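Cross-posted from the bioinformatics board.
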Amino acid sequence: MGQTILLNNRPEGTPNLGNFKFEEQSVGDPQEGELLVKSKYVSVDPYLRGRMNDTKSYVPPFEVGKPLTSGIIAEVIESKHPDYKAGDYVSKVMPWKTLQVITTEDLHKVDASKAPLSAYLGILGMTGLTAYTGLTEIGKPKENETLLVSGAAGAVGSIVGQIGKLLGLRVVGIAGSDEKINMLKQNFNFDAGINYKTTDDLTAAIKEHCPEGVDIYFDNVGGEISDAVLYHINKYARIINCGAIAVYNETTIPKSLSVQPFLIKNSALMQGFIVSNYASKFEEAIAQLAEWLKQEKLVYTETIVEGFENIPQAFLDLFDGKNKGKMIIKI
Amino acid sequence: MGQTILLNNRPEGTPNLGNFKFEEQSVGDPQEGELLVKSKYVSVDPYLRGRMNDTKSYVPPFEVGKPLTSGIIAEVIESKHPDYKAGDYVSKVMPWKTLQVITTEDLHKVDASKAPLSAYLGILGMTGLTAYTGLTEIGKPKENETLLVSGAAGAVGSIVGQIGKLLGLRVVGIAGSDEKINMLKQNFNFDAGINYKTTDDLTAAIKEHCPEGVDIYFDNVGGEISDAVLYHINKYARIINCGAIAVYNETTIPKSLSVQPFLIKNSALMQGFIVSNYASKFEEAIAQLAEWLKQEKLVYTETIVEGFENIPQAFLDLFDGKNKGKMIIKI
């Protein structure tokens, strides 16, 4: 028997513990090609909130009465697949279960000798891959260009900025508190930061900190911040549409500044993506990120909470800002 | 001596003949590397209206007291450049002058034996190149995909649709009158057309005519029409931002539906461009367009007005819809 966490009902507004339900479930035996795995580290991220709604969003909604899912690092207990053996650590998006049988589709092995296991959920997992592939594949950075990052103090944004610096860019971040701005500059090597909450005139602030304009805009937020950026994009600018948290909790999509005139005037590009589009680059990306990590050229922060039973509370704590960096539950 | 047409003053609202001024000017002799040329065909296009304003637009404004410019086919009268000789026909964006000395920068020879000279201002000129390079370089069409074209009955749109059909796409056009919709289907080989002015529900009409969604959207208009299209784009859709006539005459850029959620959800791309970005493809494009034209697989319409003195009136007539297809002045 194993434990699982189901969506009990859909939250209205801020989610609470009543939205989740724990259940004992029998696990069964792996069939040919399958693995029995035990969860070790579970990732919780703000984007899961959107999937708890029944509205059309970027990803299909969770179903009431079914388990929630997220990125999990698990240990192989029993293998019926030639490429895996008991004791291997693997990573994929899986249901919130202590024990489960999985297929090897979209599964990745992770190497506990190269980095802490939890890192494979963050900087060496979806977070790092999103930052790396978005910036390199869409942003196509060239040395000395200016990279502007919104949501810069977030898990993805803070890695994007560090990678940008390693690739020789001038990096400017937009975030929502002076503490975050200090962190961008002191911990994450950003050249400059803009606190959008205390800036009177965001377009003027962008102009001041990006005096040569914006060549690459890594956009985690959308909304009014991204409107302001449009006035400062350079010819052939690349806008990476990674997230639009400004509109995640809206039931109808709001209006923003018309982007077409800016894109035409500057022969600029906007490209939406999800990290799995670049699966063919994951091996190269992980190798590069692990190398930088080993050389201590990349830093990351994480908050680790212990216990499967604490997954819902850890998720809720994200909305109170109780985490520093990536929030992870250790089972 | 030659004649030239200057911007006399900036129009407010609809332009009129008083905005233009004719002047006699001496011409001078070509220096080493230069050519003396005589204008034969002059192109006038709606986008020139934007350049008559003193507001920031996609291209710098015309200056009061200086000549207006547009695409011109000219005959070489005297050459001081080894690659050109008297009697050659050449094409480039030049000042509105009967006779002038030009450099060979951005200059193209045109071959009067392969197509009528006026075609080099339309289907074998900027218009055709814009349609061909935008659709192929940004749209990257694959057989059986659905191409939706806004401003479909315009000079660029009608060529985009025909090229789309030649490349094996399902092609749907949006235009503003039933006469234009009939023309799309009967003359330009579109599979279907949507009259946005008489359609109660544009999103429903797009869904009806693009039952498998929109893979490529060639956008000449922006604004509300493009908002409606966003609801129907497919995964990996490509949106080609060629024009945004819906906002050309606005002094402040209006708001539209936020594009970010749609781009992220569909891993879709928007790319603004001007035709000169793809100069390296012009030779290939012209060869292909000329071949299709010879095979009568592409059709185009044009309105030819005679006389240098009639350039301003021909331009004004564009806004009264007095032209059919490309408006050209024969000198």
